[in-house]
Design brief:
about 200 residues; mainly alpha; Tetracycline Repressor, domain 2; 9 helices; elongated
Length: about 200
């Protein structure tokens, strides 16, 4: 056990990673500062040199998740030429984000009541509304240029795609596909449906 009186970025990142894993596995409420300290190999009191509270750790974990989503989506929007390319990129990058932040994703999905009760949900939901703008801009552009159908409200398409993508972290079959393969399959389903083609 080491005393973290001299905080370092590496130790801080280690604490964040271990905390995220514990929160995802046990729930935030059931995870104590002592649990985190023991798993991170530091005295629990020393954690306060890095973070003001357990909830401050949660805030940073979820903030990192949302910042990464924004960075990825901004890059997609900047480097794609058509609405369909943009939407395919958003699908792919959502799956990559889930792959790279599995614990933060689980916290956001499974511990919403704790987040709400502790005033931690609104900042994440606010960031999510910014993420929504990327989707809606591309969907509306696709409707406007005729590449997407106009008889289904954009909001329904957006919510169907978004919720399906984030739910895939619970699908047992997910591990049977690489992220690019899985992204391609879902994009094909969303854009072309499941009905057999009849030429």
């Amino acid at each position: 056990m080491e005393d973290a009186l001299s905080p370092t970025p590496e130790r801080r990142e280690k604490i964040l990673a271990i905390s995220a894993e514990l929160f995802a596995a046990k729930g935030i409420a059931a995870t104590t500062v002592r649990d985190i300290g023991e798993a991170a190999g530091v005295f629990s009191g020393s954690l306060y040199h890095h973070f003001k509270s357990k909830n401050a750790i949660v805030t940073e974990i979820l903030g990192d998740l949302m910042n990464d989503v924004h960075r990825r989506f901004a890059r997609v929007a900047e480097h794609t030429r058509t609405p369909r390319e943009t939407l395919q990129g958003l699908i792919r990058e959502t799956l990559v984000t889930i792959d790279q932040h599995p614990h933060a994703t689980a916290i956001y999905q499974n511990d919403r009541q704790y987040l709400r009760d502790n005033g931690l949900l609104e900042p994440v939901d606010s960031a999510s509304r910014g993420v929504r703008d990327y989707w809606m801009t591309a969907i509306r552009a696709g409707i406007a240029d005729g590449s997407l159908r106009d008889d289904i409200p954009a909001e329904i398409f957006y919510r169907s795609v978004r919720d399906s993508l984030w739910a895939t972290m619970h699908w047992p079959i997910r591990r049977g596909y690489s992220t690019p393969e899985f992204a391609d399959l879902l994009a094909k389903l969303f854009f072309e449906g499941f009905a057999a083609r009849r030429d």
